[in-house]
Amino acid sequence: MYEKCGSLDYARQLFDEMPERNIVSWTALVSGYAQHGRPDGCFKVFREMLVWHRPTEFAFASVISACGGDGNCGRQVHTLASCGGADEAWSVYESMEFPNLVSWNSMIAGFQVCGYGNRALELFSQMHFSGIRFDRATLCLIIKIGFISEIEVATALVKAYSSLGGEVSDCYKIFLELDGRQDVVSWTAIIAAYAEQYPEEAILLFRQFLRGCLAPDRHMFSIVLKACAGLATERHALAVQSHVLKVGFEDDTVLANALIHACARCGSIALSKQAFDTMISRDTVSWNSMLKAYAMHGQGKEAFQLFSQMDAQPDGATFVALLSACSHAGMVEEGTKIFETMSNNHGIVPQLDHYACMADILGRAGRISEVKELIDKMPMEPDSVVWSAFLGGCRKHGETKLARLAAAKLKELDPNNSLGYVMLSNIFSTDGRFNEVGLIRKEMEGKTVRKEPGLSWIEIGNHVHEFASGGQQRPEREAIFSELEKLVRQLKDFGYVPQISLALHDIEDEQKEEQLYYHSEKLALVFALMNLGNRCYSGNIIKIMKNIRICVDCHNFMKLVSELVDMEIVVRDSNRFHHFKAKVCSCNDYW
């Protein structure tokens, strides 16, 4: 009565003073907390009730109504199941219109605790086939149940969890649960999980697989070659190719295509061309792979020559590769012609990727108004890639007004991406508008948007070394800085002038120079020069990978160093390859 009149606290006081409490009094108090919107109190009383009585359907109804739309439902299911009430927990679970991940996991855990392993497995299967993203807690439960004792199930679980973006370390734990019973399919699954983000570890796993005297199949080789494409040098791809030849897969088109891609991504266009030329049978992917190789190395004329020889049916990817080649080589008219005729001549209707390439071609050439006109006439809504290309052109040519528009659109479509903020900040910094740079930084901080840190990698011996701007966490930091200072002094005599307008702080010129000196690719280069005798590849060449676009100052720096030390320096940044040799870059300063 008191709870219905709004005096819930007094009702609780009377309840606590009762010498004996029956199922009716417990249910009444549970219902009172639920009706007054106090779920924590409702669950607390409900848990206390479980010690003395089996809940009635009215008590269950009250707890369900109290859980609302938050994660309390999951905790409720877990509480019921942990107390041995799997059927009651299932009733609560089934009543949820939209169960969340906590609810799924709690119900699986409940079945497991109550000894209903089969029901837990059925629910997990339902969860998986419904496309529910499971997490580490789900995996731990499945391991407890013993679900992954079967190799087919474990392999499927590794593939599913990896494809859903799960931690590869968790995938590896599942893999290890097979305890020596792994087959080529399970090995392929775990290598594939590592290949994209951790290619070096994927190669190590492949070597471990070979030591186990198992025979790799075509699918495994294609996955391993994909991992090789993420490394700095081609030596790993060539080693894998030697295994391909040993087992008799030399005529396999899919593997040849993967080798073309891997060698190109590792900086060797010559090896890509060699792999392409020796193919017995080529499909559309073969031609596209070689066209992409030419594109990423800025060899536009070679790409067009190859396209004229293409004897397979071109597809949308073919024209993305061609347009990309035009963009990197500054072939504006050729790119425009391809874009305008691809539909009539080849039946390929331009899609978002093609429009993004065209925006890049025109933007790099300074034809900013034409990019805007192109975007306005697009038959579909431009995506973040299109606006990013437009913003890149604005940055290159100092078009501040349109850059604001592009940055705003980019932030609207991809609010957590720092690219729009950083590019606009660079434009303002170049103009010396540091107040506006500061405002952009504050906006990023307010929205918790973080700039992607500049990182570079170089392979020395059998190890890949990572460098961050500033050289943090490198044990050789002081030695690298000392060698870098010597190199800078030599280069200044050689004509090097630091591009201090690129430094993003309103500070003294001397400090700006120091900022530029410690960019990650410069540190990687110096470290390579300090370890020339330990390089893992032959030839008069240094290869560096970088996760973001190389800046103008580092580009000038690399050109001069290539002549000073009489070596070729190859840098793969986020957009393309730069081959520096004798003070000249393969991009002809057009990137």
Largest sheet: 6 strands, mixed
Q: On the 0-100 scale, what is the average pLDDT?
A: 82
Number of strands: 6
Q: Given the C-alpha coordinates, what overall shape results?
A: globular
Summarize the amount of helix as a percent range: 55-70%
Structural class: mainly alpha
The tally of helices reads: 31
Radius of gyration: 31 Å
Measured distance between first and last alpha carbons: 78 Å
Low-confidence runs: 1-5, 504-512
Architecture overview:
- The protein is about 65% helix and about 5% strand.
- With about 600 residues, the chain is mainly α.
- It has helices spanning about 10-15, 25-35, 40-50, 55-65, 70-80, 85-95, 100-115, 115-130, 135-145, 150-165, 170-175, 185-195, 200-210, 220-230, 235-245, 255-265, 270-275, 285-295, 300-310, 315-330, 330-345, 350-365, 370-375, 385-395, 400-415, 420-430, 435-445, 475-495, 510-515, 520-530, 550-565; strands at about 455-460, 465-470, 540-545, 570, 575-580, 585.
- The protein is globular.
- It starts with 7 loop residues before the first helix and ends in a 6-residue tail after the last strand.
- Helix 25 (about 400-415) runs antiparallel to helix 26.
